[in-house]
Amino acid sequence: MGRLVPTRLVPTRLRGLRARLVVAFVLVAAVSALTTASLTYREARNAILQRSQDIAVNDLRAQINSLAPELAVPPSQSDLDFFRVQLERSGTSRDWDISVHYSGVPDSEDSALHGGVMVPADLRESVEKRHVPVFQRIIRAGDPWLLIGMPVRQADGKASALTVYAQLPLSAEEANVEALVSAARGGALPVLGLAVIPALLAARGVLRPVRRLRQAAGRLAKGELDTRLEVKGTDELADLSRNFNDMAAELEESVAELRRLEANARRFAADVSHELRTPLAAMSAVTDVLDEDAESLDPDTAAAVRLISQETGKLARMVEDLMEVSRFDAGAAALHLDEVDVAETIRKTLQARAWQQRVTAELPQDVRARLDPRRLDVVVANLVGNALHHGGEPVRVLLHAPEPGADRLLIEIADSGPGIDPEVLPHVFDRFYKADSARARSEGSGLGLAIALENVRLHGGTLRAANCPEGGAVFTVDLPLRRAPEHTTADDGRDAACPGTEKENDA
User: Fold this and answer.
1) How far apart are the C-alpha atoms of 366 and 433, rounded to whole Å?
2) Cα distance between residue 361 and residue 343, in whole Å
3) What are the tens digits of pLDDT across the range 359-385?
4) pLDDT tens-digit profile of 393-441?
5) What are φ and ψ of residue 471, in 5° steps?
6) DSSP symbols for 43-59
7) In angstroms, rounded to a whole number, what is the distance separating the alpha carbons of residues 142 and 50?
């Protein structure tokens, strides 16, 4: 038995629109050819048999009219036999057999048709009652024959007692019909083969605009918004091309407007941040002085002073974050690489913010890398601060010493909180995104994780967020030991801070 081939192994080209159009075209051609051949066969067969039948009837009538006047009335049996022989000889070219019947004269043994086939009773009855020529097609030994019953009329036009029956083979006519069928069959295969050519041409004419539309859609998806199609004709495909061009034009206008609005928004944020920086600096200086004298003030005034100081600090940090994001958007952020001790840099970050008691750090020594220490400080500070504010203590910072020959550096920050909602996880690095339903409302700007991500990308690394099976969220910083902005790595999707965790979000 032949082995079945799975559908997925069949080439796509064989299951494409071109193949279906060609197959449909050939099937239509085949059905049309078969239908035409069937109708032609039926009409040709009927025409050939009818022509042979008419000729035989006319010939028999002519011979009877020529020989019947010489027949004695009433004839004897020998007269009838002689009359039959004369008719058979006169029809040698048609090779017919004759049987003669005369009312009142018994039939002789030779009156039966050649081959022992007697005249059918229904044919004889029809001739005797209607007194008109009657013909009938029969099959004898698998061969077609034509039976003709013809009453002989007298000179005055009245029916006589003489009736002639003739039988002649139709093998020659059937052979002609078979030859016609064979010729049609032989010509059908080349016609079907030739039908593939117009089918391919038709498929090409249909698929060419579709292919152009597909290519144009691909270019549009890649951001080439000025892509347009050349419109030819007035058919449905031309209308589709016009609609595509209209859609592309509207999309280009919409995207241009969105980009303009986005650029204005970024420029506005940068300008506002820059303008706020000077007065905030003055406000911060004043609040620092007020903080020093808060102990000497009455309790209500001291509380108001401390509140103003806190809110001024938050506003200052928000402005700094906005300016930092603006620098990333403008492409003005630059790396100042230096050979640093990674563990010592992380330790200083925790010490500078007094997080030593709240954070458990596993920092192996002698892990050195070429990084920007200020930006690494921002990354660790934002991730640890996010874990403390939104997760749960204790927070763990793990530095993985790279294996010999490895070119990647992994830093993981994990908390002990409830983790991140799966619906929120894809958006944790979005700017100004705050997942109120997943975590407590943030008191920050909503830019901390986005700034951390941009700093990691600036180093050519990746920042991932995931959930640990036992609870809590973990953020993994993956940095190259040598700066390689275009470098990509294959990750197994598992985080050491929570073994068994599949990677859930990769920014």
Assistant:
1) 37
2) 9
3) 888 888 888 888 888 989 989 998 998
4) 889 999 988 877 778 889 999 988 888 888 888 888 887 776 654 444 4
5) 115, 155
6) HHHHHHHHHHHHHHHHH
7) 20
Distance CA 134, CA 148 (A): 6
Pairing of strands 395-400, 359-362: parallel
| Rounded Cα distance, 159 and 308, in Å | 138
Q: Which of 192, 187, 193 is nearest to 40 (CA)?
A: 187
Dig out the tokens for 72 from the structure.
């004695």
- CA dist., res. 142 & res. 170, Å (int): 11
> How far is the C-alpha of 150 from the C-alpha of 164, rounded, in Å?
5
Closest among 262, 253, 255 to 329, alpha carbons compared: 262
Q: Two tokens at 249?
A: 């034009």
Q: Over 60: is that where the pLDDT of 136 sits?
A: yes
- Bridge partner list, 11: none
Question: Which domains does the chain possess?
Answer: 18-177 (3.30.450.20), 237-329 (1.10.287.130), 338-506 (3.30.565.10)
Strand partners, 339: 370
What contacts 24+ positions apart, CB below 8 Å, involve 449-455?
A: 449/382, 449/383, 449/386, 450/325, 451/321, 451/324, 451/325, 451/328, 451/378, 451/382, 452/378, 452/379, 452/382, 452/383, 453/429, 453/507, 454/325, 454/328, 454/333, 455/372, 455/375, 455/376, 455/378, 455/379
What is the spatial distance between Cα 484 and Cα 466, in angstroms, rounded to a whole number? 25
Q: Give the neighbor-by-neighbor strand order of the sheet with 97-102.
A: 97-102, 159-169, 143-153, 134-140
Distance CA 445, CA 276 (A): 15
Over the stretch 233-254, which tens digit does the pLDDT of each residue have?
777 778 888 888 888 888 888 8
107 CB burial (10 A radius; 0-12, 13-18, 19+): middle
Contact by Cβ (8 Å): 433, 427: yes
User: Which of 263-267, 281-285, 465-469 has the highest average model confidence (pLDDT)?
Assistant: 465-469
| Angle of helix 373-390 versus helix 342-352 axis, rounded to 10 | 50
Q: Nearest Cα to 154, choosing from 127, 131, 179? A: 131
pTM of the prediction?
A: 0.48
**Which residue's structure tokens are 């809590």?**
472
Cite the DSSP H helix spans in 391-429.
Answer: none
Distance of CA 380 to the CA centre of its chain: 46
